[in-house]
Amino acid sequence: MAEITLKSLAHSYSKNPATAQDYAIREMNHVWHQGGAYALLGPSGCGKSTMLNIISGLLEPSNGEVLFDGKVVNSLPPEERNIAQVFQFPVIYDTMTVYDNLAFPLRNMKTPEARVHERVMEVADVLELTPQLKRKAKNLNADEKQKVSMGRGLVRDDVSAILFDEPLTVIDPQLKWKLRRKLKEIHHRFRITMVYVTHDQLEASTFADKIAVMYEGQVVQFGTPRELFETPNHTFVGYFIGSPGMNFLDVTVRDGKVFSGEAPLLVDKRVYDGIARATSDNVKLGIRPEFIEVHQEPVEDGMAVKVEHAQDLGTYSIVYASLGGISLKARVEEDQITPVDKAWLRFPSEKIGLYVDDFRVELPHE
Ligand code: ADP
Ligand code: MG
Predict the structure, then answer these.
(1) Which protein residues have a CB closer than 5 Å to ligand 2 (ion)?
(2) Facing residues of 234 across strands?
(3) Per-position DSSP letters for 263-300, written without gaps between them
(4) Burial classification of residue 84, based on how many CB atoms lie within 10 Å of its CB (0-12 exposed, 13-18 middle, 19 or more buried)
(5) Which residues lie below 8 Å from residue 131, measured CB to CB, with a gap of 6+?
(6) How far, CA to CA in Å, does 270 sit from each of 37, 287, 293?
(7) HEC per residue, 173-209
(8) What is the DSSP string of 190-257?
(9) Euclidean distance between CA atoms 78 and 82, whole angstroms
(10) Distances from the Cα of 39 to the Cαs of 109, 192, 193, 194, 315, in angstroms?
(11) How far apart are CA 38 and CA 164, in angstroms?
(12) CA of 225 to the centre of ligand 2 (A)
């Protein structure tokens, strides 16, 4: 097993990269600690597969180093890196039986046949492939094929890490949920470092203890699901995590007050000071729909808004409001009355995040 360090890593698929846009991975540093269950989460095209392929050695990075337990492995070919990788689409030998497919990575390592048998039976059991062991892989359905492909990644217990690249995309939703639970169980049992790539936040948070959120070729935050929710480090994390995502308001200070567009915001002095001292024009106030207080009547520090509409989601509603033309979303629990037409919103200071050039900044101390 290994700790995987990415040091000043960058990658461009183009021969003569000129601008940041030419890079699939923009210079970044990241550590996957030994034994963790991790998710790498981000939208399509942000560089997730590129990162995995660099770790496994399928791709040589343009810049920087990959280290396993502190040793640079850049020049090691994939087969010497001791990494198992499971891809989005099944990688199996069609003419072999399921048993032989699962045994292949072990036989390749000259593992004694008794041990091969033990591991194949164990993995087949976990993935519920035991009844299929004697069948030829080409006769399996798409789900079963992908399970075999995953089994091939899981069968070796001597690997440094297992990388899963959106492995459940082709799997039926019900089975998907079950397999994700299985993977978590397997992780629990063997404590192998696992990196699970997905573009689905729910999938990420049900599998991983810690999630790396990737955006435009960089890991913009590495944290627990709770940290990503409560203190997004970047506006993208705020927007991407949560449903709906965080509200972001462009803010400035004028005449001793905070404004978003023409609308004055009632926020405390620390927020005012934080905005006032920012040296960029790109300053945003972020607040989650869950943390906005919604009142039916005027309250102290409450901002009057027009309620555009409300979406009833069963156990809660999302209220879409306009604060002098600025759109806001707020969550109202089922035991609260959902306002119509008018409401007063309050932003609790401790729930406000301030973002300068899209990165979160600390609020000044009193
Ligand atoms: P993800 O897995 O997050 O969807 P990828 O790592 O596949 O993202 O892709 C990152 C960026 O690199 C995208 O802009 C993609 O178009 C580009 N890219 C990926 N593979 C290649 C390739 N083989 N040649 C050129 N560009 C590529
Ligand atoms: Mg990909």
Answers:
(1) 48-49
(2) 359
(3) EEE---HHHHHHHHH--SS-EEEEE-GGGSEEESS--T
(4) buried
(5) none
(6) 38, 15, 19
(7) HHHHHHHHHHHHHHHHHHCCEEEEEECCHHHHHHHCC
(8) H--EEEEEES-HHHHHHH-SEEEEEETTEEEEEE-HHHHHHS-SBHHHHHHSSSS--EEEE-EEETTE
(9) 7
(10) 28, 14, 11, 8, 29
(11) 10
(12) 21
Give the pLDDT confidence of 7-54 residue by residue, as tens digits.
999 999 999 999 999 999 999 999 999 999 999 999 999 999 999 999
To the question of pTM greater than 0.90 for the whole model, the response is yes
Fill in the DSSP letter of residue 58: S
- Taking the centre of ligand 1 as the mean of its atom positions, its distance from the CA of residue 21, in whole angstroms, is 12
Strands 359-361 and 63-68, bridge-based pairing:
unpaired
Report residue 219 CA to chain centroid gap: 9
Domains (ranges, CATH) in the chain?
A: 4-239 (3.40.50.300), 245-361 (2.40.50.140)
Distance CA 350, CA 366 (A): 13
User: For residue 366, what pLDDT is reported?
Assistant: 67
Q: How far apart are CA 334 and CA 312, in angstroms?
A: 9
Atom 15 in ligand 1: which residue has the minimum CA distance? 45
Q: Is the CB of 14 under 6 A from ligand 1?
A: no
Q: Cα of 90 to ligand 2 centre, how many Å?
A: 14
Residue 24's alpha-carbon distances to 28, 102, 304, 311, 350, in angstroms, are 11, 33, 44, 38, 36
Taking the C-alpha atoms of residue 361 and residue 366, their distance in angstroms, rounded to an integer, is 15
Q: What is the pLDDT of residues 264-288, one digit of tens each?
A: 999 999 999 999 999 999 999 999 9
Dihedral class, residue 81 (left if φ above 0, else alpha if ψ from -120 to 50, else beta): alpha
Amino acid at 45: G
What's the CA-to-centroid distance between 147 and ligand 2, angstroms? 19
Residue 346 three-state SS: strand
Closest C-alpha among 13, 102, 105 to residue 54? 13
Rounded CA separation 236/84 (Å): 30
